[in-house]
Design goal:
By secondary structure, the protein is an alpha/beta fold. The chain has 15 helices and 13 strands. It has 2 domains: 251 residues, Metallo-beta-lactamase domain (Metallo-beta-lactamase, Chain A, 4-Layer Sandwich); 87 residues. Strand 2 and strand 3 form a beta hairpin. The mean pLDDT is 94.
């Protein structure tokens, strides 16, 4: 596959892969060691034993355990899970012993139950996007489930070896069971994927791989909760952010940016503006523009719309109420046009006019009418490549979705 649809140059992909060649744990603060991977793990050492924040995937844990043994021979007394995704819990079986306690937020078990109920669906969507980045499933998921020993609702505090650990629920993260670990004396916060994989990026309120929608206002409140702690260092699932003033400034900008998108979306809904119009027109002002490698403002408009208004889109009309698909009339439209090739020729004109989305709409009909059309597949490739070129390929989900679509054309 050509480099323009690979993960080259995408910072998320680079961070996810960064643990592969790690030779030693990184000391991010006194007694705080990092093992990198699909989701970073952190070992917090004390004279009376250690605390592990996130186990990583199964493959990450097998690497990370040896890195951590090189910096501490003390037993791990506590394992804290910052959320209920496999890059936090997947390696639990590597670290769990009868002598340590696994701690998670109260909603963790329900999150896991829902994930397992739809495991085939979620994994299929995740592999489509992340398969080329994270490696085989066997390196991600555990061979057996390890359940938390202790669950808490809003806050849980414990001390070990003279260190105080505060756990705060932040349900606006990637799962409802998200939490942050706060070390008040060090003013250090371990936030997992509260912000997704990138700090200062638009959150991804509803990923295209398939996930339960996340609440925009819950995200805002969770970030505010972190801001109230006034951290001087944040360790995310992949990054290090330092400087109390910079952190406070950026947290405020993130809060204001997501609140702005939320409020403009609700204003548009009340004014009767259509969903797709809002997706095109709600654009934050320059001072509130977050990066969009992982989430996008337009996608969050759609997530907010559905959070408040549900699945029905009145602009789509009566057919939205039924199981009928536009593809069902594709053969009739092709017949009226003079055949699927005529639809393809119009799509070719759209490509020439630099209108890839219009071309893709037309080609969906052509392929529904004539699934074996080589011309339609050829033009679909051209339209997808043009779309990628126009978008700049800067968003991970967008680029890797297009990459998956191009792979599907090769195997069709």
């Amino acid at each position: 596959m050509s480099s323009d649809v690979s993960d080259k140059g995408l910072r998320v992909a680079e961070l996810v892969k960064s643990g592969a060649g790690q030779a030693a744990a990184i000391e991010r603060a006194p007694g705080v060691f990092e093992s990198r991977g699909v989701g970073n793990s952190y070992l917090l050492t004390t004279p009376d034993g250690d605390v592990l924040v996130n186990a990583g995937t199964l493959g990450d844990a097998r690497r990370g355990a040896s890195l951590f043994r090189a910096v501490s021979t003390h037993p791990i007394r506590y394992i804290v899970l910052t959320q209920s995704h496999a890059n936090q819990y997947g390696g639990l079986e590597v670290y769990k012993t009868p002598e340590n306690t696994v701690i998670a937020q109260h909603d963790y078990t329900e999150d896991r139950r829902c994930s397992e109920a739809l495991s085939a669906h979620y994994r299929r969507g995740s592999r489509r996007i992340f398969g080329q980045i994270t490696g085989p499933v066997q390196e991600i998921v555990p061979t057996r489930e390890v359940f938390p020993d202790l669950l808490f609702a809003e806050q849980h505090v414990f001390e070990l070896g003279g260190r105080r650990f505060e756990l705060h629920s932040t349900p606006g993260g990637e799962t409802r069971s998200a939490l942050i670990v706060w070390l008040p004396e060090e003013r250090l916060a371990l936030v997992g994927n509260l912000f997704g994989p990138l700090f200062g990026n638009q959150p991804n309120l509803n990923t295209i791989r398939g996930d339960k929608p996340r609440s925009a206002l819950a995200f805002v409140q969770s970030v505010k909760r972190l801001r109230e702690l006034r951290p001087s260092m944040i360790l995310t699932g992949h990054e290090v952010v330092q400087g109390a003033e910079q952190i406070a400034r950026e947290l405020t900008r993130i809060v204001d940016a997501v609140q702005w998108v939320h409020d403009r979306t609700l204003e548009g809904m009340n004014a009767g503006v259509s969903l797709r119009t809002l997706m095109r027109e709600v654009r934050p002002p320059a001072e509130l523009c977050l990066t969009e490698e992982y989430g996008k403002a337009a996608w969050n408009v759609r997530a907010i719309w559905h959070e408040y208004s549900g699945w029905f889109d009145p602009e789509r009309g009566t057919t939205e109420l039924f199981g009928s698909e536009v593809a069902s009339i594709a053969p009739a439209l092709a017949e009226l046009a003079g055949g699927a090739d005529r639809l393809c020729e119009r799509a070719r004109a759209f490509v020439a006019e630099h209108k890839p989305l219009e071309a893709l709409h037309m080609l969906e009909l052509a392929l529904a009418a004539e699934p074996s059309s080589l011309l339609a597949r050829e033009l679909k490739r051209a339209a997808l490549e043009l779309l990628l070129q126009q978008s700049g390929g800067k968003n991970l989900w967008e680029r890797l979705w297009i990459a998956a679509e191009l792979r599907a054309l090769q195997t069709a």
